[in-house]
Structure formats: C-alpha cells, structure tokens
Specification:
With 78 residues, the protein is an all-beta fold. Helix content is 0%, strand content 55%.
C-alpha cells in the first residue's frame, strides 16, 4: 500500500511507502525491532530507528519527521 503527502501524518508498515510532494519515496524494513529507513532506491539505510526515536528528512524544500513506533513508522510534515 502506498500513501501520499495528502495522507500525512500517517503510520506506514513494512512493505508500505509514502510518496512525498517532490516524488521522494520513504519506506522501512524491520531489523531486530528497529526500523531501517530507506529513501527512494537506496540500498543502505538512511537511518536506523528504534521505537521512540526520530529522524528529520529534508527534501524538496520541506522537512519531514520520521518517528519509529511500536506499530511502524510515523511520517509527518513539519
């Protein structure tokens, strides 16, 4: 399932992704309780987040807060 910026804030689950306004795609893979965050077609995780941790992604002139939750990855525009 995919989400768009219009759906934000949204909690995505593994194998889901968000397409931001500039076309950037954000997804994650589960890794031992952590969330490995990938942007577009990256092969290396941009960040590894444990529940309660967050990461600010700046793209297309906007800032997005990515927060690991017990259920997935919350994506919200700042």
């Amino acid at each position: 399932m995919s989400h768009t910026e219009a759906d934000l804030p949204a909690v995505i689950h593994e194998a889901e992704f968000v397409i931001l306004a500039d076309g950037t795609q954000v997804r994650y893979e589960e890794s031992g309780g952590a969330r490995d965050v990938f942007v577009n077609d990256e092969w290396t995780a941009r960040s590894t987040l444990f529940p309660g941790s967050d990461y600010c992604l700046e793209t297309g002139g906007c800032t997005y807060l990515l927060t690991a939750t017990d259920d997935g990855l919350k994506v919200e525009k700042q």
